[in-house]
Automatic annotation (TrEMBL):
Top-level taxon: Eukaryota
Domain Purple acid phosphatase N-terminal residues, every copy: 61-152
Catalytic activity annotation: a phosphate monoester + H2O = an alcohol + phosphate
Keyword annotations: Glycoprotein, Hydrolase, Iron, Metal-binding, Signal, Zinc
Domain Calcineurin-like phosphoesterase: 163-370
EC number: 3.1.3.2
Pfam families: Metallophos (PF00149), Metallophos_C (PF14008), Pur_ac_phosph_N (PF16656)
CDD domains according to UniProt: MPP_PAPs
UniProt organism field: Actinidia chinensis var. chinensis
Stretch forming the signal peptide: 1-27
Residue ranges of every copy of the Purple acid phosphatase C-terminal domain listed in the record: 396-453
Protein name from the UniProt record: Purple acid phosphatase
Enzyme class label: hydrolase
Length: 479
């Protein structure tokens, strides 16, 4: 029988190895990546960097960026800055192969921040667009014009495939530039960026040097002028600086980045929702009040964000938009010592709803690393009962921290040890994510670190929709 390659010793060896490997997977599905990277400080690109190049021409529009302009994706907010004079607020736009150019009229705003005066910041919403259509648009009418293009999303529907990019805590370092390039070059082809907060890091400069808001706008234009970036406010958007007389929170951010919050009946630009293809995306603010009354006579009262979210979650129709995605800045489940438990009070308020409404995935930033959780919840705890361990919960979201855009503050590589059970994979490297929805039941998430080639995924997970396909989709269950 030797010529058939069989022997009892081989069988025992195979059995032993099989049991040993099986045991390794079952005993510890958690992964703290051992990937080693260069430990170099992240440095902001200099002001004369190519990435910040000012477009030539008198009053040329710069810092051009777009975002969704209504609730369903038939409108786009176009924003840009002119420096020499206000110029025109008009946007001309047309479809490919069309001879007719439509016009829309926007508004211009300016602001002062300590000793800085902004350029003329224009915002113009173009409406009644056709779904799934390529549009060109032109700004700077009357002086130097510049033309860009974007694709509108497909009409909202349950099986519409769509691919989102995930970027957080980007800043404007050489690493930030690498992250953006990797996103642009990724063959997975993200069509809309879900940005989880902390944009320019201008507030790391003396007096929150707002020139660094302008450079960030010019740096990101190469992507944000061509596909919508969906904005979430982070702590670096607060710009609260009473020592220099700046006491209005979010002043530069709200002047520069508009969002369609009124379309979802929100009363402030920090929390709102959009539908896009087969996704319902809820944006929350970690830095706006969210607590409520538990007093029986006033249930659900006190703060606008709480009241809005209570009504909002009840509106989501999973037969129309199966994928329920939440964006916030400060993560609830993170096992990094950096910002550990900063999201805890919001988790206490909102987590029971996320489980009840079966949120598929929560993306957050803030921590400058990547981490993916198991599906867990921790909603049984009431201070006196001692039930404070997160438990596996197939109705709970997966929590992904993607605050690894590459900003000046560097990587967060000081992690809680041992790795908590709720943490499936963690690594302190810069990178970005891609969430690709295939249909109502399946989506695929990949995390891409900047050290790898563009197509390489350093971590990934198939997501099974919590409403249509709520079986265990953890990577541990599918090894
Ligand atoms: Fe942050």
């Amino acid at each position: 029988m030797g010529d058939m390659g069989f022997s009892w010793s081989h069988l025992f060896l195979a059995l032993f190895l099989g049991l040993a490997l099986d045991g390794a997977v079952k005993c510890n599905g958690r992964i703290t990546s051992s990937f080693t990277r260069k430990v170099e400080k992240s440095v902001d690109m200099p002001l004369d960097s190519d990435a910040f190049r000012v477009p030539p021409g008198y009053n040329a529009p710069q810092q051009v960026h777009i975002t969704q302009g209504d609730h369903v994706g038939k409108a786009v907010i176009v924003s840009w800055v002119t420096k020499d004079e206000p110029g025109s607020n008009q946007v001309l736009y047309w479809t490919e192969n069309s001879k007719h150019k439509s016009k829309a009229e926007g508004k211009v705003v300016t602001y002062k921040f300590y000793n800085y005066t902004s350029g003329y910041i224009h915002h113009c919403t173009i409406r009644n667009l056709k779904f799934n259509t390529k549009y060109y648009y032109e700004v700077g009418i009357g002086h130097t014009t510049r033309t860009f293009w974007f694709m509108t999303p497909p009409e909202v529907g349950p099986d519409v495939p769509y691919t989102f990019g995930l970027i957080g805590d980007l800043g404007q370092t050489f690493d930030s530039n690498r992250t953006l390039t990797h996103y642009e070059m990724n063959p997975a082809n993200g069509r809309t960026v879900l940005f989880v907060g902390d944009l320019s890091y201008a507030d790391d400069y003396p007096f929150h040097d707002n020139v660094r808001w302008d450079t960030w706008g010019r740096f990101t234009e190469r992507s944000a002028a061509y596909q919508p970036w969906i904005w979430t406010a982070g702590n670096h958007e607060i710009d609260f600086a009473p020592e220099i007389g700046e006491t209005v929170p979010f002043k530069p951010y709200t002047h520069r980045y508009h969002v369609p919050f009124r379309a979802s009946n929100s009363t402030a630009p920090f929390w709102y929702s959009i539908k896009r293809a087969s996704a319902y995306i809820i944006v929350l603010s970690s830095y706006s009040a969210y607590v409520t009354s538990t007093y029986p006579s006033f249930p659900g009262k006190y703060t606008p964000q709480y009241q809005w979210l209570a009504e909002e979650l009840a509106k989501v129709n999973r037969s129309e938009t199966p994928w329920l995605i939440v964006l916030m800045h400060s993560p609830w489940y993170n096992s990094n010592n950096y910002h550990y438990m900063e999201g805890e009070t919001m988790r206490v308020m909102f987590e029971p709803w996320f489980v009840h409404y079966k949120v598929d995935v929560v993306f957050a930033g803030h921590v400058h690393a990547y981490e993916r959780s198991e599906r867990v919840s921790n909603i049984g705890y009431n201070i006196v009962n001692g039930l404070c361990d997160p438990v596996n919960d197939q109705s709970a979201p997966v929590y992904i921290t993607i605050g690894d855009g590459g900003n000046i503050e560097g990587l967060a590589n000081n992690m809680t040890e041992p790795q908590p059970k709720y943490s499936a994979f963690r690594e302190a490297s810069f990178g970005h994510g891609i969430f690709g929805i295939k249909n109502r039941s399946h989506a695929y998430f990949g995390w891409h670190r900047n050290e790898d080639r563009y197509a390489v995924e350093a971590d990934s997970q198939w997501f099974f929709n919590r409403y249509w396909n709520p079986i265990d989709d953890s990577t541990k269950a599918h090894k």
